[in-house]
Amino acid sequence: MTPKLESDAAASSYAAEASARSKHRARLKARGVVWASWVIIAILLVVGMHVLNAAAGNLVMPRPAAVLQQAMVMWGDGTIPHALGESLTVLGLGFLLASTTGILVGIILGGFPFLGRVLDPFVNAMNSTPGAAFIPLIIVWFGLYTEAKVVLVWNAAVFPILINTTAGIANANRELTEMAQSFGAGRRVLFWQVMVPDALPSILSGLRIGAAISIVGTVIAELTMAQSGLGGLLVAAGNRFQMDRYFAVVIVLMVLGTLITGALRVAERRLARWRFSSQADGRSE
């Protein structure tokens, strides 16, 4: 290698390293800004609670210190852990059932356009009907306990997952689909190696929406049926005007929703790498 080529290679390597360091510093700076923003927002919320408590009293807004103290008591005596376990059982079973049925039916409806067109009006009709309209029917069919609550959560969460999955499969990359078909790919290969990887962003978006709705559905189920779990604690605290206990439970629900959404985002990033590698393998073949 000539001196000039060696110099150009060294300069190119140095430029690549400098660019990588610059991008790393930019990511760290952006992360720091995000964390600082979260801290500022949390401080503003606490200050706002103090101001509203001073202006309107404990009935409207409890003091943050009282909420924290009550949360420690409820965690310590097992009230929140027991209720959280009940709510997570209903939430987990309902969301798992909604995810399974929503993704499988969405793949079928998106992969078979004629079937999708036939069933689309019925899916939209069910999705546009308020979930509360089904509560009396669910109670008659399944009772007031865990089974009925799981069905209510499933009914609330399944349609966003199903609709997003159907749209993602139906709008899969036509070039990749036609290329796979031209090489003799069967329906199963077309689904799992081309259409499903390309539809992953839409599917995961539906799962995030479904997870948020599942939490809401769980609370509604626990409010309207046999009162238990976190929803039951909300009813008990609200009926007694114990706003410090009420807000302690609300904070648990907020943290639960944040953790579930964060877990789904981590899964989305990991599955995105599988999606790109799967599509690259499909192109190479």
**Fourth-tier CATH superfamily name of the largest domain:** MetI-like
The CATH topology of the largest domain corresponds to: MetI-like fold
Count of DSSP H/I helices? 10
Helix-strand topology string? HHHHHHHHHH
Low-confidence parts:
none
**Record field, number of beta strands:** 0
CATH architecture of the largest domain: Orthogonal Bundle
GO biological process, one term: transmembrane transport
Keywords: Cell membrane, Membrane, Transmembrane, Transmembrane helix, Transport
Domain ABC transmembrane type-1: 84-264
Subcellular location: Cell membrane
Write the layout of secondary structure elements.
Blueprint lengths: L2 H54 L7 H13 L2 H33 L1 H16 L6 H8 L3 H25 L3 H9 L4 H38 L4 H11 L3 H42 L1
Helix pairs in contact: 2-10, 3-4, 3-6, 3-8, 3-9, 4-6, 5-6, 6-8, 8-9, 8-10, 9-10
GO biological process, one term: transmembrane transport
Membrane topology: Multi-pass membrane protein
Subcellular location: Cell membrane
Task: Describe the structure in your own words.
This protein is an all-alpha fold and about 280 residues long. It folds into two domains: about 1-60; about 65-285, MetI-like (MetI-like fold). It is built from ten helices and no strands. The protein has helices at about 5-55, 65-75, 80-110, 115-130, 135-140, 145-170, 175-180, 185-225, 230-240, 245-285. Helix 4 packs across helix 6. This is ABC transporter permease. It is found in: Cell membrane. It is a multi-pass membrane protein. Its main location: membrane.
